[in-house]
From TrEMBL:
Localization per Swiss-Prot or TrEMBL: Membrane
PANTHER family documented for this protein: GUANINE NUCLEOTIDE EXCHANGE FACTOR SUBUNIT RIC1, RAB6A-GEF COMPLEX PARTNER PROTEIN 1
Any Pfam family the entry gives: Beta-prop_RIC1_2nd
Protein's name in the database: Protein RIC1 homolog
Top-level taxon of origin: Eukaryota
GO biological process terms, semicolon-separated: intracellular protein transport; retrograde transport, endosome to Golgi
């Protein structure tokens, strides 16, 4: 809810002098602050932060009464009382001179160059000129004063070291009849116990006391570490009626505070924890609600003793400080929001020994936007801060005043914003907006380019966290200068308009126009105060407000498109002050200080202020809460238990958050238009926030008709509807809905109901300087947006409760989400990790049910393999015992054509099966990938096959050591350089380089290009199979090194056979485009291979058809038809004739292979530079090449003889084209026109299949 932002401001207190700042206390409005030092009292104004009045006590007064210890304000801010160390009370009266207009009045300079050109440079706030007068000096004859608490406008309570609680009036007199003695107050564990025992121990007294009229008593901390709650039958606290209730399980309490709205009693403990209690209404005893504890992830050590605890003004956050330094903030029910122990203070600061943030006192400013703290400098560094003046006196600044700024969620003060799915936070004079559309747009763009399963889980988390930039919208100074701070804010459903309300009036902002709209008449702006919330309804701003001029409470509707003026507003008088408002379509619900819930029907007639407002129902809920202030939120929702009999249409229900208890009150239409209410139903406890979708979608009924609750440390809860199957009988209410709990790693601020995403925010810090003397030594706080997918959490909870059908319905409705496969993967991964790593046997394992559930979706195969590759190998047997054998899953992928998924299963097979099995399946996948033109996949598979150690092929046991590729592996690393020389620099000569047939002498650098997520990344080679060239090369001479193994050469030979076979198939089918992609991706030496195939596969049978195929493949335009009708040399051609143009174009198509520039290529040497000739090879041919060329002449002659006869016209056209091409290409390439004939040695290929088949 609350998040620190910016730099902590260090405020100088010149009037403090050499004294130590003891305490800081704010008045009820939190506008004035009393800064108490040992010998002085200063009153400061909050905004702007300036001193108003200061008074220092004389030396005689210090000797007589002692130094100042603590202070307390009167509720009307007219007096302040100080308790001294010698047990005296000093009463000061604050007055305002009638003849003084205000302090810090700014006047412009008479010089034109020194005048202020902007109104923002003037202080428009009226700072009251206060006077401080000492009126009474009272001596308390009861020991030292240990604590003070104001209970009424006329009285305050004092706790003394003599075990007494005294009651004093503000005029200085004591009310002796109501003095409490701890030794006479009965204490017990609850109010039902008949036996109550007073405190009999000697020297036991109260060290801290706090009062709350809403809880109905005092929370106290005794000097022996015990804690209790003092209550009575009436707030008069008659000594004969006061009873003490022990806080059980706590013996080391140090301080206390009370949350009034949620009726929570908090105690700080010496073990660094804070424990929060609530009063059990049935027994009257104190029951533990939750503990505010730092986990080992937040802080591994023990911070020490808690010395201060403090709630925010709205009760939505708790701040605790430790004696050894550091502060932390939790939400109402224990979710950690911020901890300074994790901040970056630099390398020279050890926060365990010398924490820079040691707080002795703290107070929140108005609306909780600022936290004023008194910081003590660490004892270890106090000597460094001491400086000696010229007289030899030691000057030490032991304390300082710090101001830390906060931003908070609008839900803290305006709970109606839970309908919106837009994340935004409000500050004292600015708004931080982060629209959810950015996140969804990022997902859509990312999913259109890449596949989710091609990336790791961390990459998808990064995608979810994108869009962290906040749009900061400052409130114009024209409005904020006199209406600071922002109290209420509201954003519309389209995130296009924002409205804010400060101390008076309101203003709204258009995101499209980027302009603010303010009241033209400033007096109208000052005439009303927004008191009950702010929201957008269609084109209107609705609010509950108080009119200062008419002294009446009202409902107001201001049109968005008109000027902000009362003449365009629709004003409706109400009976009592409105505290909370909310909206559901055209029905407005309000809650007032008279404990009445009113439901209004709204009808818009136009957009200039004509709105019909009619009251439908008024409900008295005074019996549900002790005070209207305890109603944290009220929501009108269409969620119901079941439809009543005779009801024409379902009525809306009311959901109330009463001090953390969530109640549901159902309405029913009776006798026509009259409504009645059923008995309230308790849905949950410890509820901080409630989210209800604003609209219902039929295709996602489960998610858009659910009630979302956040319960702090107890996690997230969702009240989910369970729709019966077709044909099932109707059941009772509880069978139609179920409450599912699950934990979050973020603090939720907004929910995208239809997209199954929770949005939140978190705090981070940046250190700019480590100089302890600099005011910037404290780190700078920044704000980041967080998000989390929750779909898999719901699915798991439903499957655990044997509600798989409902889980399937929810999952089916979310299949369109781009991250749906990732949700299934998270579901499987969490169950696998929990069950496979459990030290105790699991009686009812959930993994088989989850596997069976995921099998219902087409992404089952991808989900299993992605979960496996991100999990430890030790957990694989447990996973595949339920998911099926990897062999079967691989074959299923092949049958479905999911080649990339099948490639991922090769890693599984490589480690769970023998190397021969993995090689067999890799060969099968390679052939299929080549047939389907999956070049990137084929490239990775070739490298995978070469990386298999031939020594493991004959082994019957699976490999124990393996190398995972970058994308198929558990971690992503840069691809390994394929050159053996580079690897030898690191690992030494692990193996001599293998020289394959006709290898190149240049090893150009390989530049990987980025591919889609559907393709697996480059597989890293093992050191045992390091090669000088990692690409297939079938045209050179295989020279075996003395250290090389014959099996290595044979394996590489068989890989080359597969590649050459596929190259011949492509060339025979005239698929030159695919042949080019094949050569480029697999680094196939095409020129050298074509030279050897010139009399076999490269021979052209039908030259015209082949040429047409080239034109078609490469979209090469045909020459002019006139060229085909002209005989060669029969007609003289002019230089500008079409035939001459064709000749010029053909002559321009030349390939200079001898003067080819030596530039780095992406695919390495393609063969042009390494090829030495066209009529013969300088190196011996391998067995395959020799066997393939045996019948070259015979096949050539047979092909020519068997060629079908052609017509004269066709022969004439072919001769013309042949002559033209031979003149242009033959002169440069010295090529001979022959007829194509495929000659592939099938016997060799059958041998390859028999060798690799087993």
């Amino acid at each position: 809810m609350y998040f620190p932002i910016g730099w902590p401001k260090v405020i100088k207190i010149p009037e403090a002098g050499l004294g130590t700042v003891r305490e800081i206390k704010c008045n009820r409005d939190r506008i004035l602050f009393a800064i108490l030092t040992d010998d002085s009292l200063a009153i400061w104004f909050c905004k702007p932060c300036v001193p108003i009045v200061f008074q220092r006590r004389s030396t005689k007064s210090l000797e007589k009464f002692g130094t100042n210890v603590t202070a307390e304000w009167k509720p009307d801010s007219s007096m302040i009382v100080i308790a001294t160390s010698e047990g005296h009370l000093l009463f000061y009266k604050l007055g305002v001179p009638s003849d003084h207009k205000g302090l810090y009045v700014q006047t412009d300079s008479p010089h034109a160059n020194l005048r202020r050109d902007s109104a923002e440079l003037f202080i428009k706030e009226t700072i009251p000129p206060l006077t401080l007068t000492l009126t009474e000096e009272i001596m308390v004859w009861d020991g030292k004063i240990t604590g003070m608490a104001c209970i009424t406008m006329s009285e305050l309570m004092l706790s003394t070291s003599e075990s007494h609680v005294l009651r004093y009036r503000w005029d200085g007199t004591q009310n002796r009849d109501y003095t409490l003695d701890l030794r006479r107050i009965p204490f017990c564990i609850n109010q039902q116990v008949s036996k109550a025992v007073p405190i009999v121990e000697e020297n036991t007294y109260i060290v801290d006391i706090e009062y709350s009229p809403l809880v109905g008593g005092f929370s106290i901390v005794l000097n022996d570490g015990r804690a209790a709650f003092l209550t009575a039958s009436s707030l008069k606290f008659d000594p004969n009626q006061v009873q003490g209730i022990w806080a059980q399980g706590i013996e080391d309490a140090t301080c206390t505070t009370i949350n009034h709205k949620y009726r929570l009693i908090t105690f700080g403990r010496a073990n660094s924890e804070c424990v929060v209690y609530y009063v059990d209404e049935s027994t009257g005893g104190l029951e533990i609600s939750h503990n505010c504890v730092l986990s080992s992830k937040d802080y591994p050590g023990c911070p020490g003793v808690v010395n201060r605890v403090l709630w925010t003004p709205d009760g939505c956050a708790l701040v605790a400080s430790w004696l050894r330094g550091g502060i932390a903030m939790w939400s109402t029910f224990g979710a950690l929001l911020m901890c300074s122990l994790g901040w970056d203070y630099g390398l020279n600061v050890d926060i365990q020994k010398c924490n820079p943030l040691r707080i002795s006192s703290m107070e929140f400013a108005t609306e909780g936007y600022q936290l004023w703290m008194i910081r003590k400098h660490a004892e270890e560094t106090s000597c460094d801060r001491e400086q000696c003046d010229t007289n030899g006196n030691i000057e030490a600044n032991e304390t300082s005043l710090i101001q830390l700024d906060f931003v908070k969620s609008a839900l803290t003060i305006n709970p109606c914003m839970s309908h919106q799915s837009h994340l935004y936070l409000q500050g004292e004079d600015k708004l931080y907006v982060n629209s959810a559309d950015t996140l969804i747009r990022m997902f859509a763009e990312r999913s259109s380019k890449d596949d989710v399963f091609g990336e790791s889980a961390s990459s998808l988390t990064t995608t979810l966290a994108e869009g962290r930039q906040w749009l900061v919208i400052p409130v114009p100074s024209t409005y904020s200068a006199t209406n600071w701070p922002v109290r209420y804010s509201a954003i519309d459903s389209e995130s296009q308009n924002i409205a804010v309300a400060g101390r008076t009036g309101l203003a709204h902002y258009s995101m499209q126009a980027r302009r603010w709209k303010l009241f033209g008449n400033e007096s109208q702006e000052k005439d009303f105060i927004v008191t009950g919330g702010l929201l957008w309804w269609r084109d209107y701003i609705a609010m509950g407000c108080y009119s200062i001029v008419d002294n009446a409470d009202e409902l107001r509707f201001y049109p968005r498109d008109s000027k902000l003026d009362n003449k365009f507003a629709r004003i409706v008088r109400v009976a009592a002050q409105i505290l909370i408002i909310n909206i559901l379509q055209d029905q407005l619900i309000t809650f007032g200080s008279d404990a009445l819930v009113c439901i209004w029907h709204l009808k818009q007639n136009d957009s200039v202020g004509d709105v019909d407002v009619g009251k439908l129902q008024a409900i008295d809920i005074s019996a549900l809460a002790v005070h209207p202030t305890c109603i944290a939120s009220i929501t009108l929702t269409s969620l119901r238990t079941e439809t009543g009999r005779g009801q024409a249409r379902p009525s809306e229900s009311i959901v109330l958050n009463v001090s953390g208890r969530l109640l549901m009150v159902q309405r029913e239409a009776r006798n026509g238009e009259k409504y009645g209410c059923l008995m309230p139903t308790v849905l949950a406890s410890c509820v901080e926030n409630v989210w209800v979708p604003a609209r219902r979608r039929v295709d996602k009924a489960h998610l858009t008709e659910a009630l979302w609750l956040f319960c702090g440390a107890h996690g997230m809860r969702v009240w989910l509807p369970l729709y019966p199957r077709d044909g099932d009988k109707t059941h009772t209410f509880m069978s139609k809905r179920i409450m599912l709990p699950f934990h979050l790693r973020i603090y939720p601020l907004a929910i995208l109901f239809e997209d199954a995403i929770i949005l939140g925010a978190e705090n981070d810090t940046v250190l700019y300087t480590s100089d302890s003397n600099s005011p910037f030594s404290l780190p700078f706080s920044v704000l980041q947006r967080t998000s989390q997918v929750y779909l898999h959490q719901i699915l798991r909870q439903l499957i655990r409760r044997n509600l798989g059908y409902h889980a399937w319905e929810i999952a089916r409705s979310c299949m369109g989400l781009s991250y749906f496969p990732h949700s299934l993967e998270l579901l499987l991964h969490e169950v696998l990790e929990e069950e496979a790593t459990s030290k105790e046997p699991i009686p009812d394992a959930q993994l088989p049910s989850v596997i069976e559930f995921i099998m219902e979706f087409p992404v089952y195969l991808q989900t299993v393999v992605q979960c496996a590759r991100k999990t430890e190998i030790a957990l694989w047997p447990y996973l595949f015992s339920a998911a099926g054998k990897p062999k079967d899953l691989f074959q299923e992928c092949m049958a479905k054509g999911q080649l990339d998924t099948a490639a991922s299963y090769l890693i599984i097979l490589q480690n769970l099966e023998t190397s021969s099995v993995s090689r067999q399946y890799a060969t099968l996948l390679l052939n299929t990938a080549l047939d389907q033109s999956k070049w990137e996949l084929a490239k990775d598979l070739v490298r995978f096959l070469r990386a298999i150690d031939p020594n493991d092929v004959g082994s019957e046991s699976p490999r124990t050591s393996f190398i995972l590729p970058a994308k198929l592996g558990l971690t992503q690393t840069p691809p390994v350089a394929p050159n053996a020389e580079d690897i030898s620099l690191i690992l030494g000569n692990v193996q001599g380089p293998r020289v394959r047939s006709y290898s190149t002498t240049i090893s150009p650098k390989l530049t990987e290009r980025s591919t889609g997520a559907q393709h697996i990344d480059t597989l890293a080679e093992s050191p045992q199979s390091a090669r000088k060239k990692s690409v297939p090369n079938a045209m050179g001479n295989h020279k075996h090194d003395s250290k090389g193994s014959p099996s290595n050469t044979a394996e590489e030979f068989f890989i080359d056979v597969i590649l050459q076979k596929h190259a011949r198939r492509l060339l025979s089918a005239r698929r030159l485009t695919d042949l080019g992609y094949f050569a480029a991706h697999l680094d196939f030496h095409l020129v050298t291979w074509l030279a050897k195939e010139r009399d076999r596969a490269a021979r052209v049978d039908d030259f015209v058809k082949a040429l047409k195929q080239v034109h078609e493949d490469f979209t090469w335009p045909y020459p002019s038809p006139a060229v085909l009708g002209v005989a060669g040399g029969s007609v003289p051609q002019s230089p500008t004739s079409p035939n001459a143009l064709v000749d010029d174009h053909l002559r321009s198509l030349k390939l200079d292979v001898f003067n080819y520039p030596t530039t780095a290529s992406r695919v390495g040497d393609s063969g042009y530079m390494s090829f030495q000739g066209l009529h013969g090879l300088v190196t011996p041919l391998n067995a395959l090449e020799q066997s393939s060329q045996i019948a070259e002449t015979e096949l050539d002659e047979r092909s020519i003889c068997e060629a079908p006869p052609k017509s004269d016209k066709n022969q004439k056209s072919d001769r013309i084209l042949e002559r033209k091409l031979s003149e242009n290409f033959g002169a440069n390439l010295n090529l001979k026109m022959t007829v194509l004939a495929s000659a592939v040695d099938e016997s060799v290929m059958s041998t390859v299949s028999s060798v690799w088949g087993g």
